Amino acid sequence: MSNAPPPPFERCTVLGVPVDLVTEPEVLAAARGAVEHGKRAQIVTVNAEFVVMAQEKPTFLRALQDAAVATPDGAGVVWALRRRGIDIRRLGGSDLIWSLSEQAARLGHSVFFLGAAEGVAQEVAHRLSLRYPGLRVAGALAGTPREEDEEAIAARIHESGADILFVAYGAPEQDLWISRNLDHLGVSVAIGVGGSFDYVAGKARRAPPWMRDRGLDWLWRLVMQPWRWRRMLALPRFALLVLTARGGGIGQPEHYFD
């Protein structure tokens, strides 16, 4: 198979964490290229919480830096970039789970769903199969991010023959899990999608479009899931780090090949 590189992305950094200045069609093209050329690619969706966690977890930072694609996910990251004159639209796992599945159904690529509570991955597979007729589901499993369970889960995914893997363990567990296991999964593309399984399965509701457009997703999640308030503390900390960092903590864009 050819191992020709995908088109270059412009990659910058936010407080040392990579963020690619990509559109949804470009991410889809990269995923298609990885499958068709037999490459392996991890996609991460970088939000403010990721950036804050990466300051304290070197292993998480390395996983983000090694990812083939790092999309800008969350109003905080978009705000930090726009302060430095870099205009970009947010693109998260809750968007890509739909568009990647639609593309997979159209191109005949197979998908595997891993994570969330028992039975949720199966419901996600069912709903997406109804939404996108012809979607080839290689498997669906709740699984666990525990390292002692990795070998068995990785073997099951490898045996399924899946091309694309969606992992919903939550950050940073899902992204670290993919980073550790990508070479043993047999998939071409693996992406952490956080709580997206719950949205697809109807277990939770996304913020309405008008709130998402104004960067108010965090407020919606806080109202709907008040137990998340501790995690929300990452947002003011992120803003403070950006405001006090030299150059706003933004590394200037460079062309990047995976």
The main sheet orders its strands as 4-3-8-7-5-6
Low-confidence stretches: 1-7
Separation, N- and C-terminal Cα atoms: 17 Å
- By CATH, the architecture of the largest domain is named 3-Layer(aba) Sandwich
Strand content: 15-25%
Query: SS-based structural class?
Result: alpha/beta
Number of domains: 2
How would you summarize what this structure contains?
The protein contains 13 helices and nine strands. The protein has two domains: 39-198, Rossmann fold (3-Layer(aba) Sandwich), CATH 3.40.50; 205-237, no CATH class. Helix content is 48%, strand content 19%.
Write up what this structure looks like:
The protein is of the alpha/beta class. The protein has two domains: 39-198, Rossmann fold (3-Layer(aba) Sandwich), CATH 3.40.50; 205-237, no CATH class. It is 48% helix and 19% strand. The chain has a six-stranded parallel beta sheet, with helices on both faces. It has a three-stranded antiparallel beta sheet with strand order 2-1-9, with helices on both faces. Strand 5 (110-115), helix 6 and strand 6 (136-141) form a beta-alpha-beta unit. Helix 2 (48-56) packs across helix 3, helix 2 (48-56) crosses helix 13 (234-244) and helix 7 packs across helix 8. The protein is globular.
